Every structure is written in structure tokens, then in C-alpha cells.
TrEMBL record:
Belongs to the iron/ascorbate-dependent oxidoreductase family. Transmembrane segments: none annotated. It comes from the Eukaryota. Residues 108-208 form the Fe2OG dioxygenase domain. This is Fe2OG dioxygenase domain-containing protein. It comes from Quercus rubra (Northern red oak). The keyword Metal-binding applies. Gene3D superfamilies: B-lactam Antibiotic, Isopenicillin N Synthase, Chain. GO terms for molecular function: L-ascorbic acid binding; metal ion binding; oxidoreductase activity. Keywords: Iron, Metal-binding, Oxidoreductase, Vitamin C.
């Protein structure tokens, strides 16, 4: 993935688009919030689908030459990891091991995002990526060793998550919070820049597809734990995400049941 961002700008530019419906794309994050004005994003993102067993390599760039083969092998291994994570989370909720995978759906939405953050001359004036919550179910993140930048919010404070050699960051996202009826929390996070070194992270996303109906799993609901969210289609969830453009997005909150 590092070699892709080392390609000449004009070669990467063939994938540059603002149309997020395109399967393979390069885009730059830019965010404007009504309450804080403009925030300059110092990053470039390369995104495309992935699948652990189906052939998707024809969608990928032919340059770097080894990219298709290497990424297909990586996707197979990550698919095994996702199966294990889904099983562990289900068991952690007291459910059968396949419950969460069934509820997310037989044909999940699988995509990857490689985020490249060049060294920035003035990090105080930029962000690598604004604070946000992932919209899907689970994210497996690989961080380039030796360069920090990922931060998570806890008790109102931003904490740095340093890269650990040969380890992933596992991020539970919005749909896992809803399916678990709030027992698991979607983690707010952001990326900051630095003056000295570029940073690269690779996120693998496991999401429902647009036709999947999401809501708290019935076995997790009782008198002491009433339903916190209404049911919705994942397409509706994404439409709400885009509707909140220009604001600090609070998408989950739009589906909470009022008590």
C-alpha cells in the first residue's frame, strides 16, 4: 500500500473522484462544521472493495505490479480474522457464535480504506481525519509502525493509540452498538498529523449491505434492558449520515428511542 502512494500524482489522479458511489477511488477528506468553521484535512485516501473468497482483483490497480496478488492474500487472512471476531463478540453477549454474523447479513458490505497522511509543516492548523464514529459493524485497522496519529476519545479526553508491532486495532462501530442494544460502544476517534514523518493506516471494514435491517437483538432485551434503538434499514442509516453533512454528525442518536 505504501508503494501506491509513492506513485506519481498523475497516476493516482486517475482514481481521484468526489463520487463516493464509485467502487475504486482516491479522495481527500475535507470537512466544514457549522460551529468551528473550516478544518483543513491533510490526508489522501484510497478505497476499494475486498472479499475473503471471491475474486475482486480485476477492480484493483495494475500498478504497483504486485498489489493485486498481495492484497488478495491479505483479504483472505483478514476474512478469517473477522469470522473469529464476530464469533467472540457474539459469545461475549451470551449469544450463539454465529448470531452477529447472521444479523449483519450473508452478503456484507466489504471495503478498505488506506489513509495516507504526509508530514505536515504546521499540524496545529490541520487534521488527518476529523473526529467520527465508523458507520458499519467492525473495523480492523493496521497502523504503520513507528508513527503515531490515531486518537480515541475517553471521558472527554483524546488518548493516543500507539502502533504495536504485528498487531491490529479493532474498532467496534455503530451497527455493533445498535445490535448489542448499547452493551458494546462505538468508539469515537480521529487522526492527527505530525511535522516529521508521514503516516499510513489501512482499515478493513465489515458492514451491513444496504438491504439489511438493523435493530437490537431480541435476546438482549428484557424489562431491565429495554430497546434503545428502533429498527431501520442500513440504507436509511447512510441517508441520515449524508443528511447531517456540515454538522458534527450524531447519526446513531437519530435512531434512539425516547424514554
Amino acid at each position: 500500500m505504501t508503494e501506491f502512494f509513492q506513485l506519481p500524482p498523475e497516476e493516482r489522479a486517475q482514481y481521484l473522484t468526489k463520487d463516493h458511489s464509485k467502487q475504486v477511488k482516491v479522495f481527500n477528506y475535507y470537512q466544514k462544521y457549522e460551529d468551528i468553521g473550516k478544518v483543513t484535512m491533510w490526508s489522501e485516501t484510497f478505497s476499494h472493495p475486498w472479499h475473503p473468497t471471491e475474486d475482486f482483483s480485476h477492480l484493483l490497480p495494475t500498478n504497483p505490479p504486485q498489489y493485486r496478488e498481495v492484497f488478495a492474500e491479505y483479504a483472505r487472512a483478514i476474512g478469517v480474522l473477522f469470522d473469529r471476531l464476530l464469533s467472540l463478540i457474539s459469545r461475549g453477549l451470551g449469544l450463539d457464535k454465529d448470531c452477529l454474523k447472521r444479523r449483519i447479513g450473508e452478503k456484507p458490505g466489504l471495503n478498505t480504506q488506506a489513509n495516507y497522511y504526509p508530514a505536515c509543516p504546521d499540524p496545529e492548523l490541520t487534521m488527518g481525519m476529523p473526529d467520527h464514529n465508523d458507520l458499519g459493524s467492525i473495523t480492523v485497522l493496521l497502523q504503520l509502525e513507528g508513527v503515531t496519529g490515531l486518537q480515541v476519545i475517553k471521558d472527554g479526553k483524546w488518548l493516543t493509540v500507539d502502533p504495536v508491532p504485528d498487531a491490529f486495532v479493532i474498532n467496534l462501530a455503530d451497527q455493533t452498538q445498535v445490535l448489542s442494544n448499547g452493551k458494546f460502544k462505538s468508539v469515537g476517534h480521529r487522526a492527527v498529523t505530525n511535522k516529521l514523518l508521514p503516516r499510513l493506516s489501512l482499515g478493513m471494514f465489515y458492514n451491513p449491505n444496504y438491504d439489511t435491517v438493523i435493530g437490537p437483538i431480541e435476546d438482549l432485551i428484557d424489562e431491565e434492558h429495554p430497546t434503545k434503538y428502533r429498527k431501520y434499514g442500513f440504507k436509511e442509516y447512510m441517508e441520515e449520515f449524508y443528511r447531517q453533512e456540515g454538522k458534527r454528525r450524531r447519526v446513531k442518536e437519530a435512531f434512539e428511542l425516547q424514554r
